[in-house]
Amino acid sequence: MQTSQTTTTRPTSVDLATARILANIAERAQTLFSTGGYRAQAFYTNPAVFFVFPPQIEKLPYVVDTREGKRHCNCPAFAQHKECKHILACDAMIEDDRRADEAAEWHKFGRYDHEDNAE
Known about the structure:
Shape: globular
């Protein structure tokens, strides 16, 4: 009886040190707004762009753009790694807001029909 072996291919574009750095960034993003002392304010003309205020009052806010194809933050981590805790935290906040809106819609009408809104 012959058994087949499955080979797992791992991405080669990220080395172990970079993977650890990105994992650390993602971990810190999870609590950035809840316990990290940061706060975010959406830019008034574009709800996908945020000012992220650090807990230190004397520091200027970071400008975070979460739009696809325009993702950017003016922090040092983004400049070095093209990813940062500010962007990931804003992404999570946007997703939480979307889910809350969806839940409110469902609660208001007793259901939420995705097909009615898909276009």
